[in-house]
User: Fold these one by one.
Assistant:
Number 1:
Amino acid sequence: MSNQTTIDRLRVLLAALDPSIDLTGDEAALLGRVATHFVVPATDTMWLALAVLHAEFPTRDQVVDGIRRIRLDGAASVLKEIAHAPVRRGIFGLHPVRPVRVVTGATFVDVHHTARTGLATGIQRVVRKTIEQWSQSHELLLVGWGSAFGALRELSTQERANALYGTYPDAESEGTAEVTVPWRSTYILPELAVEDERTARISALAEFSGNASYVIGFDCVPLTSAETTGQGMGGAFAKNLAAVARFDKVATISGAAALEYRGWRRMLSGAGLTGPEIEPVLLPADAGTVTDAELASAKKSLVIDGLPLLLCVGSHEPRKNHLAVLSAAELLWREGHEFCLSFVGGNSWGGQAFTTQLKQMQERGRPVQTISAISDALLWGGYRAAACTVFPSLNEGFGLPVAESLAVGTPVVTSDFGSMKEICEQGGAILIDPRVDASLAGGLAQAMFDPAVNQRLRDEAARRENKGWNDYATEVWEYFHKSS
Amino acid sequence: MSWAELDQSEEIDRPGLSQALLGRLATVAPYFLSEQADVDALVQRGAGPLLARLVTEAKASESTDLLWLLIAGVTASFPNADQVRMTRRAIALASPTKISAAFLEACFDSAVRFDDLDKGVEVVSGGTVVDVDFCANHRHNTGIQRVVRQTMSRWNATRDVVLVAWTANGGAMRSMTPLERSRVIEWNTYTEPGRDQPPVDPEVYRVIIPFTSVVILPEVPQAALCSALAALAEYSGNRVGLVGYDAIPVVSADTLDSNETERFVRYLTIFKHSHRLAGISAAATEEFAGFAAALPAQGLVGPETVEVSLPIDAPDGDAEAIGATGTDPLVICIGSQEPRKNHLAVLFAAELLWREGVAFRLRFIGGGSILYTREFDKRVRALKRNGRQIEVLRGVNDEVLLSAYREARFSLFPSLHEGYGLPVAESLAFATPVITTDYGSTAEIARGGGCLVVDPRNDDELVVAMRSLLTGDDILNRLHAEIAARSDRTWDDYANELWDQLVLPLRGELDV
């Protein structure tokens, strides 16, 4: 890959500002032609000039300051200074200057994290399924950030594969990938960006660059339920929101998430901001398939002593309220009900109390266990094998295990508010107050042990119209691209 | 752990602990048992039987009020939400004979940690308890502390309130010493005996437990107190009222250190379980109302929010002139140098005008973190080198500030986000016109007259407004006339209105 000189970058900038213009001549001639576009400096061209000439996307302050300097000292001298200012060379300044290109009229999709992670939890599933569907019918430019979150670059082949399918968690980026600058384009952020440097630059892109900017909104839990999140998340998430405040549109994954985002948007007026358009596009209820052998193997893992299975899917963080599940189960066992309880989910922040309580109950001989090594076969087999599933979360952008259980026709006991309630609108569930253990136990008793109720819920679940990923991806794309 | 074991455990083997516990149980017992004779009989039988009876009553109760009270009474510390839930589960599942042991095992850990087991407790029932922990312990006196001290000095004189601080380890609310009270209600007249020191517990104090009371939080509590206060709001049955200052750490998180946001989201965990909030401006009230509107997603309704705007008020004290003097008019810009205050826009606008030949002096007053002041100071130095009349005063006292307000032709406050905009109000109190932001809380103050408003993100509007006040007297005279005609509220008005709008409705809910 060739090194770009200052003159090369000036040509790239000039070509983007005016595709028909003459790109010949020396630096002074090129600067003079660029300067004609900054007689009255505008924020979008200022953003573009800084991104191209610095090989790094500017922050808000840099754009505002650039305009002020041009107004005080004139475009030619300021642009010359910018063009000769040190160019970002990656972390520690070790890398060669990255070549810059400007891409016009494209759809940039920022999947930086999804392209590099081995995780396959809720957010990654949404991102992968969505961009997979989009890429079948639209031209996408999948992008990520450099090591220091200075600028966007196109993903390597391996990163692209990992972004789409999760197949290369250790994907290598390709050395000094080109800095890729969107211009008169669309920038879509389908994942959660929480890195400070990244959100600061995304914010300026959304506010100033003139590109259309859209984002998928998952929830506002770190803001609205801080007691259930670890230290550090609130600060990082609020910086994400500060960037989202400058976006054009947010597609939230549920009506409950839209309620959270709209509440947050109301908070912006004191800062003189109006915030993005916010619409919910409910995630699909996907029914994964299993073979008979997989189902048998899942039963073997999850069912204890041949007892009816109560299944609880999700990590053991406090927000998922698994202590209440243990407490309700204990109440039911004491009432003489016979069943086993299996949790499927990893340990996480704040899961200590759960682990301790579970151990005590196992020592007292209760048929209860937790399995942290999750596979698709175990999960989908488990949903099918269960008499009922339980998901009494205190706050969810979208209660995925609720939708998954209902999609295979298994009744659910879940919270009587938010996205959980929303997913159950077509029936198949008993809604309870997750803050009252007796309410949870009562709901479980009905769904698990009253055969008529269990059958009614199963019938309701079977009649549900379940939305697919294709429908979801199409709805989001159409919402983003319809003129508002 | 059984009660007998507990009594013998080494950790708490201090003289008088059993007696102290019995005393605390006897203090809370009347809220569980309607007949004082029953209480007396149980006290005669000792702590064990009394505790067993109270735990049984708490278990039988539909609500969590009694359970919260019992935990607070037994442990002399306020539980967090996890402790309340854990204790509630433990006694729900325990057999009648083991109910005391289950209760103690679930909640006693907090008591040992907080080390207040030798303390007596006082239950404030049907009262109005006001948490003024920070003002009681600190001599800092800017924004929030001024509101608290101005309000509490008035409430203390005219209303029935119980002012409380927290134990130094953050375990529980406690009674205050005379000096601490003076710091809160006699700010302008008391004498501080020594240097400012980190908070320590007084030699003698009582743990104060509000029950079926109104609890008012006029400060933003320190992070360490938030989980106990959130649990108090959620579980204790007390009606909790807040004074809401702003949501800047969330809304303008991009202009602040992440730690400030971290602290603030913990504060919001109290807010979401509280019952009423009085915002210091319509803008601040709307920020909290917006947050409350997000809460049904988690099955909560959130508090009622109501606007009780701060008064226009001049800081007390004499003026003392410090700073460069000159014949050219003085323009001042008050406030800490941080990105949110938009001071780089002021520097830009001033330089444009200086280049036009408009003569004036520009003075900034206010501190700032080195993180932000470096770049600002660099630019100020560059302007000075070019002969501009600009100065930055840091760490100056109120007298210098007052003198600047008096001397200035007008002041500048084009902040990007404020809960109130105190410098706007102060400037108006000194009859000095202000150029300020055309939205949010500053626009609310400006509506009363005496201000020019601008879009702080539009440098041209700032330039035009400054030029109009520097190059002619017409508009300035009009603004002076407007200031003279303003009818502004006083601290007396604010203190009364806050009582009527925040405390009285909550007291009304208690009677239901």
Note: Chain B touches chain A through 63 residues (CB under 8 Å).
Number 2:
Amino acid sequence: MMRLNPKMTQVLAKALIWGSALLVIVLLLFILLFVLIKGVPTLSWQFLTENPRDMGRSGGIFSTIVSTILVTLVSVAVATPFGVGTALYLTEFTREGLATRIIRFSADTLAAIPSIVYGLFGFIFFVINLNMGWSILSGGLTMAMMILPTIIRTAEEAILAIHPLYREVSFSLGGTKMQTILGAVLPSALRGIMTGVILSIGRCVAETAAVILTAGSSLRLPESVFSPARTMAVHFYILVREGISMERAYGTAAALIILILIINVGANMLINRFVAKNH
Amino acid sequence: MKRLLDRLPGFIFLLIALSALSALALIIVFIFYEGIPIIAKVGLGQFTLGMSWAPGKGEFGILPMIIGTVSVTLGAAVLGVPVAILTSIFLTEFAPAAVSRIVRPAIQLLAGIPSVVYGFWGLTFIVPYIRLWIGGPGLSVLAGSVILAIMILPTVISITEVSLLALPRTYKEGSLAIGATQWQTVWSVQLPAAKSGIMAAVILGIGRAVGETMAVIMVLGNAVALPESLLDPARTLTTNIGIEMGYASGDHQQALFATGIVLLVIVMSLNSIAQATLKRSQR
Amino acid sequence: MTVQPKIAIRDFSFYYGKHQAIQSINVDIHANEIFSLFGPANSGTTTLLRALNRLSDLVPGARTEGQILIDGQDIHAEDVIVTDLRRRVGMVFEEPVPLPMSIFDNIAYGPRMRGIRNKAVLAERVEESLKLAVLWDEVKDRLHTSALRLSGGQQQRLCIARILSLGPEIMLLDRPCAALDPISTAKIEDSLVLLKEKVTIVLIPHNTQQAVRVADRAGFMLMGEMVEQGPAERLFTVPEDNRTSDYITGRFG
């Protein structure tokens, strides 16, 4: 076998390492540009504000946008109080012991469950057993369970990161435990918590497997949380699978990607401006 | 009375905190409840090792799907883990700050792309080129592996990075001080020291690959036969559920839930191993 | 006739679990004086200070014996409301800890938790407290900017103002100037001397010179014991106990 001296190995290794990083960037750009270049031309104001017609062969994607927003809203509105509450329990009311370990284990395990299994569960539990039918509510509640672990983890990290004396200061000024949590702990941890919530919003928008089994695939504009709904991701999947309209598929994908980009980039900027002004 | 009132917030928060546990319990209970009857009917051995999946004839053997999952996942690991580890090393040891500021958000973005978009991209680019340059129908285990390899990059990178950053700086400095090159230090000192963490990262990446559905549905070809080579189409446990759930009923539907049980068992085992490995690495 | 001390500590012991941090001490602290608790590290000074506003309650495994009486009333009695106690007995910590909010909100934090919502009342209290803490002139034009932008010395005076907005009778300060430069230190020491007209001050100095400068009376603690206490002038020039003189002259520390 050819013997390479350390200097040669270093050069070779560096090339591979930089190459890997480059590969990652190239792949990202490839995928993004592929969708955006083919899809953006379809994106017009009309496309975004018109409902789909003829099973999606013509018309726009308005109802899917609304559905996506509603399902995400339900999901985040339910998961955030439970997630932050759980994190607060772990940080403010307990010390490490059996209870905390069980809760953490549950959260970690929930995080590992495949989304299709969440879909199965949501279908049998929300859609069938609780008789909610295919609806925004079923989809939102299922996804709330999916994003719960993320919110717990990021909220806990954020709360543990606050200045250790903030609590003492609040107590020494005559605060009760709840006053300290609401007045000092949560406001200080807000930025980190928001980051976790935004991450979860991105996850909800991108999710397909769990949603298609619980929110259904109706193209009608949803009238309430009990209406069935088709989110953008599901719509994109169906358009591709059935070969209904490549043009609109690309358009939907582009809208989806742009939405995710806005969530990722824009929201983080907002956090930096709003919450960090006191940091 | 006042004492009870003082204890109230703690009690309420405890109830809230049990939500994660209850959610997990619910999922396990319901999936098992729906799936166990068919396993009992068909027999565990026949179900997990049976070669024939033909719901119309009442045959529910999921071995082809298990093989499908294993091959696609292994392929993803072989392709993706080296790239992920090299990229982690890049971020922790070799990247100038300005470049990190581009690469890190890029990885985050990669993680945010919907799986259906990955699948579609794979369908449009990876599948035809496999068909053209390598052979077979293109819709294949190989295509699935490539897509999954890309999809697990963020997971493996982030945990590997954490493990590398957790190493005491003296490890690296000691090695450099005796004249080793940067790469020698990484290869001989840092990577071995972070071994447990990296293993955990890989296991979690594999868990992620096992659970993926939508991207894989689009590029795997979905033939129920046993794949005999990388270029053959196949089905995984997840895609089987994804494809058939829309029209399954009765025993068929139950069998899909039973597949869900198998998935739960696999993923929960992988997760426990990974967590245990991570804990070991933290000692 | 002797006047009742503001704070009377009687046969007081403090335990962290099995470890006894304070050994059955007796201390008298008079109203409107600056009393300096001093001693080497781990002598129990911080523990005693934190016992005075029962912040020590927050430590798991904390246990007390004996009594601490403020105006003749045992602060550990069944009917004592701890949150009320802590408003009467305020504390300033070793490092300045402004809360991540505006200067105004920092000082209004305590009163707001008490239930005071009236904007005019809050504004008045904020102004008064900042004046007492000798910070008003420096910040009056930027009350609604972040408190984190203030300098170290200003932040510590903010922390003093934060307590004053609750109208406390007693102020506890644990090495308040440890992280500050001499000029800021001097400003705070001057404000303490002015403040003692309104409150009783218990101060742990970060070095004995500070105690010499500002204290009226002092108490030397060593390993949980109250070795000696009395008028500061006497204690720091002709102490009665050898251990006190050894510490003051730097034979150990």
Note: Chain B has one domain: 57-282.
Number 3:
Amino acid sequence: MAPRIFDPNRLPTEGATASATARRPDFSEIRRVDWAGYVLVGFFTIPFLVFNVMPVFFGTYVAFTEWRIIGTPEWVGLENFRTAFADKWVAGAFRNVLVYALIIVPGVTCLGLAAALFVNQRWPLATLARTLFFAPYVVSATVIGLIWVWMLDTQFGLVNHYIGYLGIAPIAWLTSPEWSLVGVSIASIWWDMGLAFILFLAALQDIPKDLTEAASVDGAGPPERLWFIILPMMRPVISMVITLQVISTMRIFSQVYVMTNGGPAGSSASPIHYIYQAAIQRNDFGLASAVAILLFLVIIVVAFGLRFVVRERG
Amino acid sequence: MQFPTTSRPSRRRFLKQAGAITGAALATPWLGNRVFAYNKPIEIVHWSWLAASDGEVWAQMIKNFNDAHTDKGIQIRLELVPEEQYTTKVLTAAATGQAPDFGWGTAGKAAQMAKDGVIVPLDDLISASGLDLSDFSDASVLASRYPKYDNKMFMVPMDLMSLQPLLNLDHVAEAGLDPAAPPTDGASLLAWGEAMTKREGDTVTRSGLLMTGSGVHPTVTWGIVAEQMGFERASADLKTAAVNAEAGIKAMEWVLGLFDTAKVATRDVTDRYKAFGVGQGSIFWTGPWTLSGYMKQGLNFASFQMPNIGGTQKTYFEMGGLELYVQSDPGRYEATMEAVRWLSDNSFLWTTAGRGAAPRKSILANPDYKTAGIPWDKRGAFIDGMAIASIPEIPVLDGPEFTIYSGGNFLAKTLEQVWAGISTPEQAMAQLQEGWQKSLDKG
């Protein structure tokens, strides 16, 4: 139903098509702007500009100032960046986040892939397994953190209880500088695995059956089918999961905040945790913005680096 | 063929309607406040972070005020703000001219807000409201002032809190100790801790002296012991940092000894409040804000005064009070001060069932003060113990970096390196001295 669009008077007359492309447009037609379209787009664009784009520019400006919300930001040039580079807690947080990435990204990728391969076999209880593997991702990171604080408790935690049967002494997962990063990583892997799993499962179901069947007929066993057919076919999704997971891990915060608050002795702190402390607890918005810019640059470099290391196409 | 056109609005009509709807939506809050304001009582906006069992008592205090002022054209609207976001939200609200009328503060921690004009000096407002300052203890009035900002009062004191040890009476009975004669010095404290500690091999499974391996608890323990040993974070004139550093180093060694030498505590406790509540520790120093929670939980406990571990019996002191925030309409201060005066005059409930000791002499002299609210065997040490509560905040711009009751400030982060064995006490003290001196030099 678009009655006014259909206007017989405005239909091009026979033979007029070619000349119409050549003629100059009528001035009234140029001025005619479909404002309704702008209004509809504006409902998204204006809030996006105000709440997303402007804060980015303002944050960049604040990084070069000293500002504690009250009063006008005072220009200090590169001072906040100097402070950030000289602060051993900033360096520690960036070092930690790289270790997080080294643990969490392979963990999520491998376990997510294994879970997807398992569910894709359609063995009994596969539907239940699919729900269970994805369920943690639906729960908020804060809840996951609180649950894992109890699971990883040194004295009464379930994890230490069960590894005790293997003769392993209780591990101070969250209270020792050596293990706190691993403890937080375990919770993160459990939480993040759900998304990787569902993406891998979708990719597996897209692989044409005749390819794997043909390979079987040619004598390829499960390992050969996985290595020579399934994994190459899934390369774009694996690449995407790794990239998304690296970016997500670089921004890790909730689990750290809830489980260890960055401790002990900063051993599990992350850059976002540092930014939170600087901005919200110390109201040092200049330093917090400077560290946020550094984190942004690191994420950009790592993400572009990954495009070369884990290419979507061979 | 004619198509029906009545259901499709023209572009012009659509834009008009969209504009009208958007305008109405944007104007609604303004209309709500302005057009109908004439028949509304004055509403004082109050922000509070009290969310635990003490929060319930405070909500009752506000309700009592509102009930008593139903026909007097003034009501308080209580809004809860998470404690860690409190200052940031107050600053943001003040910067946009939307600050609440009054809120909770901690004495000595708001020098920056006083400098920025976010909190309002109260001396004139207090005299105009008729609040009797001579009824307040001298210490509480002193703690409400900022010497560097004309020595003005920026807070009406509401409660005096100190850190005192709680004792799990079931553990005491089990160890055959006498609860009527709790530890009074460092040696007896360690002896009691040893008697109530449980171990499996070398591993402590129940701490005689409940500690955590990082965060607030070891920091505040160090702060108390260090000050008892003669250490000062800042000199009295606020010019020199870390006076008597040797004492500070000795106090760090004392805390480390709890874990490594005496082995009466474990670093493996993560949530100290919960741990004491479920019996993972026997002696636990904390503030009066925990009492009603543990009582509701049915925990069998009593309190006693902080022992003299280092030479002079002292403990941490924190004063809570009400601050007035800057308003675009100064006419609101008078009504707000009236509300604060009423809350202070009627703070008997707050200082018997809520938290802390009363700063008002008239309330302390009330014959019912010892029998009302939480039983005296649990509350008494927090009232009588105010006599030894003499470790205050440092009232400078960077005051929060000096506080010993913190889990994430410069002090706590520096000390965590010691508890984790990454730094030596000497290295940590050198860092503290350097960092704090810079802070004092800022003013």
Note: Chain B touches chain A through 44 residues (CB under 8 Å).
